[in-house]
């Protein structure tokens, strides 16, 4: 039996590790998909969930480390089987109601509590598989048992397959209930495989380890080596939330955008711990400066989401690979492997938690991402410099440019330094500084410490440049994103403000003129002549007073499209937006001037509007955006049915579909088609305002959806000459069980295929 057990041990152990890794990594997007709609589709849901799963992974590794210290393999196997069985009591997967409804004032704490109660036990129990099975394999008596690290590749491959399977196969093919049932079945299968691996380990080696194998015999790694493990694991773990947030801010929050960065992170692990990893180190070192160049260039692009995403993923991948190669080079002998994985996991928890949970409390912008990118440079292997003098002078020039930008940020506008540099021009000066930094990066690629400093100088110049584009009077960062209010000056007098602009991440969400007599003029998407503004006026034209529900507050400009007798209810999930746009002392006064008696309901609109009476509103405007797009759960079949149920006999639903990355017109048309609701669409072009320039009216796309043709007949169709009936293209409509983000991305690039028929 011993010979047979040793023969089949590699296959069984690899299969068990592959399956358990796939199981726990498919769980991450699966369960986050269940919780994201409860918190408004915020990208922070995934980042906070990632921090939790890393902590649960650490707990699993600690448990494996302690369990592997037991002498008898049979005792280890029996205890682990018991732990797996007890953890299964938390199944099937569901969002626990133990902590009550979502807490929008402290959403991260609520989410972490829900994750702990709902999936913490099965995830931690299954995550112990990789280090525990490698420890068992090292005691199997096989010729290769002294180096079980190659099994880590099977574990990482399983993680990658499970992660990618979710958006490609699991989410499109199974509803949420089917996903939960499938995961429960997978958990049972993995439990059987783990028990099978334990039986083989016992048969291959015997009941217990020999005296020489009970304790580690290799030298202790020491504090310095352990800290190195922590750092090399923490930096790429901190990069994952940073790049995910960067992508989500430009495109939207969905499993596809969560999965890709984490999948690349796992690929770097697989490559770094492969048997030919030493060949990758020179390649990674040589391409690193180019990765930095493309990533830095992406920071200067606006509105071009595809090159921004590709450049960030490239820079992230190479940076994470360098860290993991350094980690793999420093790994200890097999008798120290559970300790090694424990420190690697601890580093992942520290890095991921710092970026996902601590950074939003400390920073008012995504500064942790550049900091982590700079820290990754420290793990470059140091080589001989070819042009040491030129490298030094280039670094000094870059540092001088950084110092100059800092001085320009703080000195008075009329000072001699400002006057002197003003002759050059602000943007030529910024481009010179950024270019000097990038040139210095190439010349100093052999000096990791200096290279890290140069990256910090580059991002310092970039963020200072951003601050000088007008005056930032408010910048807040919370669970639901980064809000920034920027004042634009009168060109004739820089002390006089003429315009305030509200941005969420880098996307404009409203603007207001500040000159007396002009403050009630709706701007950007809400100008009365845009498609969105006209759609709202159409909804109000069917009767007075109009009962209006606004999903998403923004700067509050929509309030000034309403009449004094109209009744406004606003559903807004972000308390910071409410403070800025609807409370005394806020940055915008649309609400206080035009609808001071408006009712504001804090929370996710899907959950909160469901509590309103049916037929309560004559006009529902879906204008909630997470950065550039409507959160997907607000645009599903069930969501639109809910909105229509809340409209009166003359009521309409207006969907604001403006965005630059997703083909939402086709998706909204499919949803309307499936529920049999007539839909009209119009897209308006941007035009300038005498006092607000191009913020006067931004290009906007709006869709009007009604319950029936009878409601449509009540609208002033004769005056809506630019509106058209929209015919949906073929394809399955979005629902709470099915959201096809890849299709929306592709159709945005290739061109939408809906049809319009003039009224």
CATH superfamily of the largest domain: MFS general substrate transporter like domains
Strand order in the largest sheet: 7-6-5-8-9-13-10-14-15
Number of structurally distinct domains: 3
How many E-type strands? 15
CATH topology of the largest domain: Growth Hormone, Chain: A
Number of helices in the DSSP assignment: 25
Fraction in helix: 40-55%
Pairing-aware structural class of the strands and helices? Answer: alpha/beta
pLDDT averaged residue by residue: 84
Largest sheet: 9 strands, mixed
**CATH class group of the largest domain:** Mainly Alpha
Which architecture of the largest domain would the CATH scheme give at its second level? Up-down Bundle
Give the terminus-to-terminus CA distance: 80 Å
Radius of gyration: 29 Å
Low-confidence stretches: 206-214
Please state roughly what percent of the residues sit in beta strands, choosing from under 5%, 5-15%, 15-25%, 25-35%, 35-45% or over 45%: 5-15%
- Tertiary shape: globular
What does the model show?
There is one protein chain. The protein has 759 residues and is α/β, with parallel strands linked by helices. The chain has three domains: 2-211 and 219-362, MFS general substrate transporter like domains (Growth Hormone, Chain: A); 388-468; 519-758, Vaccinia Virus protein VP39 (Rossmann fold, 3-Layer(aba) Sandwich), CATH 3.40.50. It is 55% helix and 13% strand. The protein is built from 25 helices and 15 strands. It has helices spanning 2-35, 44-67, 73-87, 107-127, 129-137, 151-173, 176-205, 222-250, 255-272, 280-298, 305-329, 337-362, 368-377, 388-410, 416-424, 426-443, 448-467, 531-540, 575-582, 590-594, 605-609, 637-645, 664-674, 709-712, 741-750; strands spanning 471-478, 481-490, 493-504, 507-513, 547-551, 567-572, 599-602, 617-622, 647-656, 679-684, 687-689, 693-697, 700-705, 724-727, 755-758. Strands 7-6-5-8-9-13-10-14-15 form a nine-stranded mixed beta sheet, with helices on both faces. The longest helix is centred in the N-terminal third of the chain and has 34 residues, at 2-35. The radius of gyration is 29 Å and the shape is globular. The termini are far apart.
